[in-house]
Write the structure tokens for this entry.
Amino acid sequence: MRFCSFRNNRKTLPWISLYLIDIKAIDPKLHTSLTGRSNELILENIKSISKIKKEIYIRIPVIPNANIEELPKIAEFIRSLNCDSLKVELIPFHNYAKSKYESLNRSYEYAKVDPPSEEEMELFNSYFNGIPSVSYDKVRRGDFNYIFQRIKEDY
């Protein structure tokens, strides 16, 4: 349902058990500046899915100098859903794309941005206290065993 309304996807509901949705910002202007698209449809789809009690996995990229101030607003939005079938994951920014941009002779806007520290991620995670299944991604530290274990637990 990336850029399609929930209403247009109602026929698919019996075959979908889990929705993976990213929220980068609540502020529509900031979201558009970060992604080139409005977040109105994304937020409306999340609201609609939460009402039918389907499982929702909301991923939130944590991007220094871009959306840190939005994290409390995102947490407030998620709390307003009053949905007990969702999980939230904070995904720390990383510089993995830097070498790819360099190999293509393209400038990488985030080349000098450092990933958030573990302490910062713990602070950001605290904004989501009271929301079920809050965690943050450990890929930044190369903890692939953690990720594989989580996949096994979820399935």
Notes: The mean pLDDT is 83.
